Amino acid sequence: MVNYYDILKVSPKASKAEIKSAYRRLARKLHPDSHEGSEETALRFAAIAEAYAILGNAKDRAAYDHRILEVQYTSNGNGSSVFASQNRHAKRWRQMVYEKRFNDIIDRLIAEERREAIALQRFIFPLVALGVGSIFIGIVRPNVFLSDVFPEWTGVLFKISVAALFIIGIIHLVGRIRESFDRFAYDDDEIHDSIFDETELPIRSMSRYSMSALIVTGIAVCIGLGFAIGYGLDLRSISMPYLFSRFPQVDVLIFPPIFALLVDTVHSLILSSGH
Predict the structure, then answer these.
(1) Looking at the 3D structure of the chain, how many domains does it have?
(2) What is the pLDDT at residue 36?
(3) pLDDT at residue 217 in the model
(4) What angle do CA 6, 12, 17 make, to 5 degrees?
(5) Are residues 132 and 103 in the same domain?
(6) What's the confidence (pLDDT) of residue 190?
(7) In the chain, which residue ranges form alpha helices assigned H by DSSP?
(8) Which of 107, 136, 166 is the last residue of a domain?
(9) What does the pLDDT read at residue 199?
(10) What value, to the nearest 5°, has the Cα angle with vertex 31 and ends 30 and 35?
């Protein structure tokens, strides 16, 4: 049976990041373009590509490790080693080791899937909160930030607090989007060069340009939907002078990032408490 770990020169316990790093290193070293089309190098490059295709995918790696365990611990043999002995105690020992190794594989798969799920949530939650906040603010069209709803020093403190939360919210959103780009998207300009440098290989399915366009379009749609609902319901008839203004105020831009910050903070606290 082909040992993909030997091909990539990594330990069977290697992390996903270590496997990626090993593949990048070997890809730069063995890429056919850097060896004038050598057939031997091309075959070795194909081998490491096949190994990475299996070991780089959590579910495929788990299935591969399972097959290795079956070969190591459940196959019959005629040698004197305890691995091949037909003694009932040796068989029981082999079964215990097999079950322990298999459970380790499953635990590793679950842990990797959990990390991927959490990373996806850290991307989706603030964006969904930003969209919902944009819809709500578009419906209400408040005029709180620049109005005199709060008297004297209370109003000044309120404006300073809101401005600070807005800045923190924008920085937080940018950080979340950048983190998600690094994990889930690739840069179109780096696809062909990535195996020759230290950058991450483009194994994701969406480019940064496409993801950026999707995010911007989604937010624009949410804002437009909020305005459509707000003007359609004609909520200005309610006696609230600091809400339901005729025209959108600066509040439309300020409050959605704050709402996204608060929602994502609560979500992060829930995730932390669940560890």
Answers:
(1) 2
(2) 63
(3) 95
(4) 95
(5) no
(6) 46
(7) 4-8, 16-30, 39-55, 58-73, 88-140, 152-184, 208-233, 251-273
(8) 107
(9) 41
(10) 80
Same domain? For 100 and 195 the reply is no
Cα angle 221, 225, 230; round to 5: 150
Non-local (6+) Cβ contacts of 239 within 8 A are none
Q: Which domain holds residue 53?
A: 4-107
Q: Taking the chain (275 residues) in consecutive chunks of 10 residues, what is each chunk's mean pLDDT? A: 87 82 82 65 85 85 80 54 57 69 75 81 92 92 83 87 96 92 66 42 64 92 92 67 77 94 91 72
Same domain, 250 and 125: yes
How far apart are alpha carbons 84 and 87 in whole angstroms? Answer: 9
Q: What is the CATH number of the domain that holds 89?
A: 1.10.287.110
Q: Are residues 151 and 251 in the same domain?
A: yes
CB-CB contact of 119 with 180 (8 Å): yes
Separation of alpha carbons 51 and 43, rounded Å: 12
Q: How far is CA 217 from CA 3, 13, 90, 152, in A?
A: 46, 42, 63, 40
- In this predicted structure, what is the pLDDT of residue 74? 55
What do you get for the CA distance between the two ends of the chain, in Å?
38
Whether 147 and 219 share a structural domain: yes
Contacts of residue 164, defined as CB under 8 A and 6 or more positions apart, other chains included, come to none
Token pair of 213, please? 């366009």
Question: Do 171 and 261 belong together in one domain?
Answer: yes
Rounded distance between C-alpha atoms, residue 54 and residue 134, angstroms? 43
Task: Report the length, in residues, of the chain.
Answer: 275
Q: Same domain for 147 and 262?
A: yes
